[in-house]
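Suppose a classmate hands you a notebook page containing two proteins, each written out with its sequence and a corresponding row of structure tokens. How would you begin to make sense of it? This section walks through that situation. The first entry is reproduced here exactly as it would appear on such a page.
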Amino acid sequence: MLTRRKFIIVVGGVTLAGLAGCGGEEEVAAACEPRPFRDDDECAVCGMFISHYPGPKAQACLRNGRLLTFCSTSDMFVWLLQPDSVPQLRKAYVHDMGITDWDHPSDDAFIDAEVAVYVTEHPVMGAMGPTLASFGREEDARAFMAEHEGRLLRFDEIDVQVLNDLARAHIERMM
């Protein structure tokens, strides 16, 4: 039989567990930052190892605290454009190619993927071929376009069609 004392203990325990859960959320939020790539990091989309390839790469911090790594900005968008991905996402990061080297992007050059600007339809290859060149400043993106051509896009303008066009351009270059 549930006595008044047992009831108070159960309710108090549930309350404390809820408060402990809130504290955990704060820890997850605080830990939601990009980290340096490791030699054993694999792309969450294609499974290839990431660290030794050129071009901008990405990371996505999930609501559960897990960090996904991507060999390219394009693969990050492949993941983001899946219907079940967005509810899981807390924050995504990409390399700012305006402040780092294309062949060896620095892990100190991550920026918020949602505020970055992207250049597509350019000939410079990333880890998986054509990729979206990511920049923290529109001026840097335009300077890249002056040298390599391309088209400027914002985060919310990147959709499946943009990714399909990247793949199609790559196939055409290979022929």
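The notebook's second entry, a different protein, reads as follows.
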Amino acid sequence: MGGPNLEVFKFGMYIMFPIAIMYYYGTNLDKRFSVPDFWPKPEQTHRIPFEREEIKSELERLRERRLFLREKRLGENQGKSGGGSGEGSS
């Protein structure tokens, strides 16, 4: 039917098509598949403390935050349970 030239052309297409696809999707990946502001900036992330003083201050900060949230949660629970005691008792 086609002869040797057709076979060479088909073989070339079989080889070049996957290479062309890989080249197209493999070049300029930073602009094509990037999501802006996906990773946080270094100043927005938490730095892990390694020094003894930094660890102590971080533990103190976490303890204060935990106690603050506990007090806030207990205040909300007392407000909810204290307001409904006198209603509907007649």
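A careful reader of the second entry would note: The helical segments are 4-26, 29-32, 52-82.
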